């Protein structure tokens, strides 16, 4: 199938390279020329395992990138993978979606054949049919159902494992208005739907939109519940990991997403939970449980710093922060809990020396005024430190040694696997 993808960030680039790999002809339409040049040169514009080799193999043949929206005219279906950021008040900012839909509608004005426009970005119920569709109609001069159709197909890939998640998902959700659109999307995903472990969910557009938010809200709330229980476990002197491992054996609960500690960050959970809460309030509903999930999440970094302060006088102390990315396997620092830890340590007068295997450049670039020191290894961050905290569970932290520390105190926010005997004080955030 000939497919165009608007927006070539984490999702658009991954989806494009994977669809090319599955035998489709794909063109990425992207406003950032550096990204376009990278893809056409066979290079991955982002760091994701398995992406570089797929782009290298298909660039120039089954995969192309362009800044020109007219290239959608040679395709049958367009996937919108545009950003849906958070506004200052937490609500969903649809400006990039509106702008992309306008440009796409303009291009489609001269198309004679049928065209299916699929929203893959995370958007609140009603957005596809009440915001995107009217813009397409207005700009193209074609009524929806009269040559142009819209559908919604949310994406569930995780950063760090994006390629594998896309190619072997738990489910593919197709929210459509017509049988023809459903059939076209089943064809697009045919090789993926052959996986025995992949469920196909066929539903209406509004339900597809909400499934994505419900999924993320559930997972984020699960981690917050696990952290609430973890904090209670800590008060009782019990090990939350042992407790929750046993709880997870109940298959109604499952053992996944049961790691308590510093909480959830990243480009999705915080913004999507915020958008759903703001949207619910707009509809006249108070989302009290989601409010509580955010409150618990926001407290964890402060609890970690308080725990360290029980053992180290933070004023003027040299504190090593191990890990800056929001989770291991990525250099993404958006809403990383590690940055909150750094902020609270600085507030309390500590001198921070931070180490991360891949995220330091992003912190330097995005927080140029942050008064911290960067180390080029965990060992050098720990050298001479009066205390340390683990903020991201990078596997390499399992091999830490603490000989160089001035005071061997470690507070662990992520339950890494270390030899506690080497430390004077080892405290887990929830164990
Ligand atoms: N990152 C994830 O792990 C993930 C997973 C599932 C769903 N999502 C959702 O998918 C959507 C995209 O997320 P992302 O992480 O890929 O975002 P991103 O910011 O990484 O990428 C968006 C891309 O769109 C480009 N763009 C912006 N306006 C444009 C326009 N008018 N025309 C063409 N290109 C334009 C930007 O330059 C950027 O490269 C969001 O709704 C997000 O919530 C993200
Ligand atoms: O047991 C756990 C699991 C996760 N986390 C934290 O939760 C956050 C999110 O982790 P994860 O879900 O693995 O990463 P994302 O790449 O943000 O993926 C989420 O957000 C994406 C964008 O919407 C969705 O597509 C994915 O399905 C959804 O898992 C990170 O800060 C993790 O450290 C925990 O603290 N404990």
Automatic annotation (TrEMBL):
Pfam family, one: UDPG_MGDP_dh
Catalytic residue list: 268 (nucleophile)
Pathway assigned in UniProt: Nucleotide-sugar biosynthesis; UDP-alpha-D-glucuronate biosynthesis; UDP-alpha-D-glucuronate from UDP-alpha-D-glucose: step 1/1
UniProt xrefs under Gene3D superfamilies: Cytochrome c1, transmembrane anchor, C-terminal (1.20.5.100), NAD(P)-binding Rossmann-like Domain (3.40.50.720)
Transmembrane segments: none
Record's keyword terms, sorted: NAD, Oxidoreductase
E.C. code: 1.1.1.22
Superkingdom of the organism of origin: Archaea
GO molecular function annotations of the record: NAD binding; UDP-glucose 6-dehydrogenase activity
Residues in UDP-glucose/GDP-mannose dehydrogenase C-terminal domain copies: 320-418
Gene Ontology biological process terms in this record: polysaccharide biosynthetic process; UDP-glucuronate biosynthetic process
Top-level enzyme category: oxidoreductase
Binding site for substrate: 212, 257-261, 265, 327
Chain sites annotated for binding NAD(+): 84, 122, 271, 334
InterPro entries (UniProt xref): 6-PGluconate_DH-like_C_sf, NAD(P)-bd_dom_sf, UDP-Glc/GDP-Man, UDP-Glc/GDP-Man_DH_C, UDP-Glc/GDP-Man_DH_C_sf, UDP-Glc/GDP-Man_DH_dimer, UDP-Glc/GDP-Man_DH_N, UDPGDh_AglM
Alphabetized SMART domains for the sequence: UDPG_MGDP_dh_C
Reaction(s) the record says it catalyses: UDP-alpha-D-glucose + 2 NAD(+) + H2O = UDP-alpha-D-glucuronate + 2 NADH + 3 H(+)
Family to which the UniProt record says this protein belongs: Belongs to the UDP-glucose/GDP-mannose dehydrogenase family.
This protein's name: UDP-glucose 6-dehydrogenase
């Amino acid at each position: 199938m000939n497919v165009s993808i608007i927006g070539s960030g984490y999702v658009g680039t991954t989806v494009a390279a994977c669809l090319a790999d599955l035998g489709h002809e794909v063109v990425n339409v992207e406003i950032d020329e550096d990204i376009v040049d990278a893809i056409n040169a066979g290079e991955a514009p982002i760091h994701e395992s398995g992406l570089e080799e797929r782009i290298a193999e298909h660039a120039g043949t089954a995969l192309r990138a362009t800044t020109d929206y007219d290239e959608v005219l040679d395709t049958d279906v367009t996937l919108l993978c545009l950003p849906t950021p958070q506004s200052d008040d937490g609500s969903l900012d649809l400006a990039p979606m509106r702008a992309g839909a306008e440009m796409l509608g303009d291009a489609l004005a001269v198309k004679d054949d049928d065209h299916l426009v699929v929203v893959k970005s995370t958007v609140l119920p009603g957005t596809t049919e009440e915001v995107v569709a009217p813009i397409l109609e207005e700009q193209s001069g074609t009524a929806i159902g009269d040559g142009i159709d819209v559908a919604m197909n949310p994406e569930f890939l995780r950063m760090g494992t994006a390629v594998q998640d896309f190619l072997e998902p738990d489910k593919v959700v197709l929210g459509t208005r017509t049988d023809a659109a459903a059939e076209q999307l089943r064809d697009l995903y045919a090789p993926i739907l052959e996986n025995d472990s992949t469920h196909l969910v066929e539903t209406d557009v509004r339900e597809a939109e909400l499934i994505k938010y419900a999924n993320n809200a559930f997972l984020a709330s699960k981690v917050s519940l696990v952290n609430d229980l973890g904090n209670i476990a800590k008060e009782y002197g019990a090990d939350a990991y042992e407790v929750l491992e046993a709880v997870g054996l109940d298959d109604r609960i499952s053992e996944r997403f049961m790691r308590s500690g510093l909480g959830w960050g990243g480009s999705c959970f915080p913004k999507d939970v915020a958008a759903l809460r703001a949207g619910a309030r707009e509809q006249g509903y108070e989302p009290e449980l989601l409010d509580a999930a955010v409150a618990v999440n926001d407290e964890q970094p402060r609890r970690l710093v308080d725990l360290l302060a029980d053992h180290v006088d933070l004023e003027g102390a040299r504190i090593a922060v191990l890990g800056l990315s929001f989770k291991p396997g990525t250099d993404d620092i958006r809403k990383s809990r590690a940055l909150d830890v750094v902020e609270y340590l600085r507030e309390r007068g500590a001198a921070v020396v931070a180490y991360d295997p891949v995220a330091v450049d992003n912190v330097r670039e995005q927080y140029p005024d942050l008064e911290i020191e960067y180390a080029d290894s965990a060992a050098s961050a720990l050298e001479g430190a009066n205390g340390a905290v683990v903020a991201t569970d990078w596997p390499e932290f399992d091999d830490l040694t603490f000989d160089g520390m001035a005071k061997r105190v470690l507070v662990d926010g992520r339950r890494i696997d270390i030899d506690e005997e080497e430390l004077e004080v080892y405290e887990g955030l929830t164990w």
